[in-house]
Design a protein that fits this description.
The chain is of the alpha/beta class and about 500 residues long. The chain contains 23 helices and seven strands.
Length: about 500
């Protein structure tokens, strides 16, 4: 919701300004513009979830389509196995349905890693240019690119130097690495600058990420919230159990270990992928600030390495029976991952027992927004009905998105002047309910709705409007069924 409203400003007014404290980079918003235009949506009010969620879903699918670029390095079997695991990974599927930067960032990070590896093993400037484009897009997507991109470069350098005499056969050994590096850096800087400057409309914003560095370093090292132990990401992927539900992507980790052990002597790519995943994972695990979606950039490389592990097991035996057993095991494991992905993305999409759910809005908040729109339909002012929201800023969301078609919704952090407006509908934090009950007397009725786990909001409704609402519900109840659905107010 927060990202959607930020995109609305770009869609309606062509405005984008980098926020040094939140929202991250601009690629998510600019790459959403074509999706909105294709659906004829030109305002925030006209947007819907389908338009917004299509963008990370498409990028998530595009991440899988990057894997064939690795065929020359790791083989077709590894690519196919990795693609299957990536397509059905609960973590990859879950975060590819959310309008946040993560699926986009992990796609660009993997594209950069592949392009850098190809640039080390093949001549020409094509791959350095592609690496620069991917790096620029990653930098313009999220600040953690300062972790992920150097991790790939360090892993690549280690893998190359570990080749010993064999590295003389690499294209960079003949001295052309300098020009390749310069081309890649220039391309990355150009792409990132174009996005951060709003296509050069605001050149001063190019330095925005540099000015934000202190904020993100402080947040990562001294987190007020979101502090977790070093093994947090490993625990999420290995085994999670809560409320009778269990989750695991352990098969990916086991195959990745097999890939590491069996391919270290096999040449550049096995070593490179191992280092890439291990270095980034180690850095993210060492930083106290952790959120579950931050595992995606290093998990994509881990999944590719799992494909390498499966391929190594298949090569270990020439027996068709063994190959059939391995294929059956992979099919069963993939089916289990797919079943978990369905549970994560559909059945338990906002359930706190889902390990990938993190401070999510609960469905009750959506029902509250629906109730407010139903009340507006009964008010003389319609969608122009005045609504006041009195709560801390983090409790305002996601109402700005769900009430986006209502122009007279105001947000306050304290009751004060908000109460003087005598709005027919008031949304309030439970911190303010005592003060509101005293000030409003018996002029309003109130309901409570969940916002996030253990966070409630109170909805105050003027008596006259509430009476009209009850009358409408009673009328709907008295109407014979004609294939419609039950009023949302009764759910």
């Amino acid at each position: 919701a927060n990202q959607a409203v930020k995109f609305g400003a770009l869609l309606e007014r062509g405005e984008y300004r980098y926020d040094a404290h939140d929202h991250h980079g601009p690629t998510l918003y600019y790459l959403t513009l074509p999706a909105a235009w294709l659906r004829g949506q030109t305002t925030l009010a006209s947007l819907d979830e389908r338009t917004l969620r299509a963008v990370p879903a498409i990028v998530g699918a595009a991440t899988i389509l990057l894997l064939p670029l690795l065929t020359a390095g790791i083989g077709r079997t590894a690519v196919v196995a990795g693609a299957v695991l990536m397509a059905l990974s609960p973590a990859m599927v879950f975060y590819s349905r959310m309008y946040i930067q993560e699926s986009m960032f992990s796609c660009f990070a993997l594209a950069f890693a592949i392009a850098v590896g190809r640039a080390m093993t093949e001549p020409g400037l094509r791959w350095p240019v592609l690496a620069g484009i991917a790096a620029g897009l990653a930098v313009a997507t999220k600040e953690t690119s300062v972790i992920v991109l150097p991790s790939s470069l360090v892993a690549c350098a280690i893998a190359w130097w570990s080749l010993g005499p064999d590295r003389r056969r690499a294209p960079v050994a003949d001295g052309r690495w300098t020009s390749a590096a310069l081309v890649g850096l220039a391309t990355a800087a150009t792409v990132a600058a174009l996005f951060y400057s709003s296509l050069l409309a605001d050149p001063s914003s190019i330095l925005g990420p540099l000015r934000a560095a202190g904020t993100y370093v402080d947040r990562g090292v001294h987190p007020a919230d979101h502090a977790h132990p070093w093994h947090y990401y490993l625990g999420l992927l290995t085994w999670s159990a809560s409320g009778g539900l269990t989750w695991t992507e352990g098969v990916v980790l086991v195959l990745a270990v097999v890939g590491t052990v069996t391919t270290w002597k096999g040449g550049f790519w096995g070593r490179y992928l191992t280092g890439n995943a291990a270095i980034a994972a180690a850095i993210f695990s060492a930083i106290p600030y952790k959120t579950p979606w931050n595992l995606l950039p290093f998990y994509t490389a881990t999944i590719v390495l799992a494909g390498v592990g499966f391929s190594a097991l298949a090569r270990a035996s020439g027996s068709r029976a063994v190959h059939a057993v391995l294929a059956a095991v992979l099919s069963i494991a993939a089916g289990h991952l797919g079943w978990q992905a369905w549970r994560a993305a559909v059945t338990y999409a906002s359930d706190p027992r889902n390990p990938y759910v993190y401070a999510h809005t609960v469905p009750d908040a959506v029902r509250m927004a629906t109730r407010i729109r139903q009340l507006a339909a009964l008010h003389p002012d319609g969608e122009r009905m005045l609504v006041t929201v009195i709560a801390p800023p983090h409790e305002h969301w996601p109402l700005p998105w769900y009430l986006r078609t209502m122009p007279h919704v105001g947000y306050w952090t304290e009751p004060g002047e908000a109460l003087a407006l005598e709005a027919p509908v008031i949304v309030a934090s439970t911190d303010h309910t005592d003060a509101l009950d005293s000030a409003l007397g018996n002029r309003y009725v109130s309901e409570f709705f969940g916002l996030r786990p253990e966070v409630l909001l109170a909805l105050y409704i003027e008596h006259g409007l509430w009476d009209r609402f009850l009358a409408r519900v009673a009328m709907d109840d008295a109407t014979p069924e004609c294939g419609g659905t039950e009023p949302a107010s009764r759910h």
